From TrEMBL:
NCBIfam families: secG (TIGR00810). Involved in protein export. Participates in an early event of protein translocation. The keyword Iron does not apply. Its main location: membrane. Belongs to the SecG family. It comes from Streptomyces bohaiensis. It is found in: Cell membrane; Membrane. InterPro entries: SecG (IPR004692). This is Protein-export membrane protein SecG. It is a multi-pass membrane protein. The chain crosses the membrane at residues 51-70.
């Protein structure tokens, strides 16, 4: 279960970093400030959002599960 937590933590970090920056901050420093010519969110962005939410929920469940096992 600890290996799963490490795996999901790494995956969650990668998914969060893949998101497009909303302007300003550190995201501009790494190229996140480039605007696309297409307005709205694309299918790829919506799928990335969904994957991030699913991985975050699994990560949260893993943290809670490890907390209960260690108690």
């Amino acid at each position: 279960m600890q290996v799963a937590l490490i795996l999901f933590s790494f995956l969650l970090g990668l998914l969060v970093l893949m998101h497009k920056g909303k302007g300003g901050g550190l995201s501009d420093m790494f190229g996140g400030g480039m605007q696309s010519s297409v307005g709205g969110s694309s299918v790829a962005e919506r799928n990335l959002d969904r994957m991030t939410i699913v991985v975050a929920l699994i990560w949260f469940g893993t943290v809670v599960g490890l907390g209960l096992l260690m108690k």
